[in-house]
Amino acid sequence: MSEPLIYELGGPGHQGAELPPLDVPDAEEAAGGELPGLPEGLLRKSPPLLPEVTEPEVVRHYTRLSEMNYAIDNGFYPLGSCTMKYNPKRNDAMAALPGFRDLHPLTPEAGAQGALELMARLEAALAEITGMARFSLQPVAGAQGEFTGLSIVRAYHESRGEERTRVIVPDSAHGTNPASAAMAGYQVVEVRSDARGGIDVEDLDRVLGPDVAALMLTNPNTLGLFDERTLEIARRVHEAGALLYYDGANLNAILGLARPGDMGFDIVHLNLHKTFSGPHGGGGPGSGPVGVAAGLERFLPRPLVVKEGDRYRLEWGDPDGLDRPAPESVGKVQAFWGNFAVAVRAYAYVLTLGAEGLRRVAETSVLNANYLMRRLARTFELPYDRPCMHEFVLSGERLKKETGVRVLDVAKRLLDYGLHPGSVYFPLIVEEALMIEPTETESLATLDAYAEALEAIAREAREEPQKLREAPFTTPVRRLDEVAAARRPVLRWSPAGERRA
Question: How far is CA 90 from the centre of its chain?
Fold first, then answer.
């Protein structure tokens, strides 16, 4: 039998072993006397019994655990829409510079001039890239950026004495869009997609009205398609007195090619942890800066970084000169000033690539996606048969009808090939959806290997369908009972080791 994948710390020969007494002071003595506030029953009377393990055993244990994780540093990661993409090590080095790394958020402005200058320069770069007037770096996730943007929508309409209660969201939208709108207190109204995957303008006319506060739009959308009628949509939204909100999750597809501000968008949020190379998910915190068009700056979260002479400072906008947000600002949305280390990485990325490099990011992401889409369209259905942008959505509906194999089975089988699957069953408007984002940094060889694996799996579905229904076979954890997990989730472990739902 092969060696187990995980070393159990404190295994046979260690558990329960008697340890020699340690010559260390007890808790009370170590604290210099009495420990106020700690009940007597919680104070340890003797050293804890810990497993006796060597340093190599500990290192091997955690190394083996880390090797079970799939990450962008060890494989192709084609999740659609919010993929962890290129995370240059140079960016990490910049964020680790002592002057940035060791700076406390409450450092006086005089001692934080470098950080404030970087924030001001990054805000200016993002404004130029998107066509916005000003940005706030405070939001620390795309979803928090959405909530901040919708708070600005509310503040804008209230400043005009208007009470608007509805936000329009496309049927292909990210799930955070309706969630953020609901959190902001709005009623969510859905607008349909047309036959080409864009917003159905006639249906938009049906749902627009004097009570609509905003339309939230991702462009290109979650189908990976650029909405060909964006200018017309913007005109209709503005004629109804509403604002047009840009979900910037897919901005990497249009960098240097088009700007949301030029399309008529009023508010933008960006995902620095996607488009601008910051680590995402388990790799690091997010960042969702919010930008606004001219005339909406007063509603941004405060403080903002401003330059006076050759110095930078935090400007709160309070008419009394106090360190509190201006009356029309939506206020602070995050402790301190945002995830600064992510901002450092983003600025390093912008400086490294420059305008031409950012444009090549978009061009390459679009090229890679269209290449892979056309190749895989021979194996899976293509619901919207037109050029895509940075990602595309296939359908396994025909495969399911012919073999009984679902897209979920295909995704599980990909794990046996050592590959991460794309997103499945999203957007909801595509049956048996498989969304793939190749990204702008992968080689032709990698794209071909991924296509070959999916083609091979499709052949397996016709020859050995049961094999796919039982996959994966090579992963540390086999297929889970998803129905049981949904009905009886194990949310935590009790101290006694009993499972509690």
Answer: 21
On whether the CB atoms of residues 193 and 199 are closer than 8 A, the answer is yes
Q: What is the dihedral of CA 311, 313, 318, 320, to 10 degrees?
A: -60
CB 167 within 8 A of CB 186: yes
- Assess whether pLDDT exceeds 50 at residue 452: yes
- H or E segment to which residue 208 belongs: none
Cα-based distances in Å from 170 to 100, 187, 258, 325: 40, 14, 21, 33
Tell me which residue has tokens 């994966």. 472
Q: Which two tokens stand for residue 69?
A: 């994780």
What is the rounded CA–CA span in Å between residue 75 and residue 418? Answer: 8
Q: Domains in the chain, start-ordered, CATH in brackets?
A: 1-68 (no CATH), 89-350 (3.40.640.10), 363-487 (3.90.1150.10)
Please, where are the H alpha helices in 217-339?
Answer: 230-239, 260-263
What does DSSP assign to residue 119? H
With H, G, I as helix, E, B as strand and everything else as coil, classify residue 169: strand
Span 190-195, average pLDDT: 97
349-407 per-position pLDDT tens digit: 999 999 999 999 999 999 999 999 999 999 999 999 999 999 999 999 999 999 999 99
Q: Alpha helix locations (H) across 19-130? A: 27-30, 55-67, 89-95, 98-101, 113-130
CB distance 422 to 437 below 8 Å: yes
| Residue 5 half-sphere exposure toward CB, CA atoms < 13 A | 9
Q: How far is it, in rounded angstroms, from Cα 60 to Cα 38?
A: 37
- Is residue 169 within 8 A of residue 163, CB to CB? The reply is no
- Indicate the pTM of the whole model: 0.85
C-alpha span between 208 and 232 (Å, rounded): 14
**How far, in Å, CA of 436 to CA of 439, rounded?**
9
How far apart are the C-alpha atoms of 89 and 111, rounded to whole Å? 27
What 3 state SS string does 195-239 have? CCCCECHHHHHHHCCCCEEEEEEECCCCCCCCCCCHHHHHHHHHH
Contact predicate 286/125, CB 8 Å: no
Q: Which amino acid is at 207?
A: V
Q: How far apart are CA 331 and CA 41, in angstroms?
A: 45
CB 225 within 8 A of CB 198: yes
Number of residues that make up the chain:
501
In one-letter notation, the amino acid at residue 252 is: N
Taking CA 94 as the corner, what is the angle to CA 93 and CA 99, rounded to the nearest 5 degrees? 115
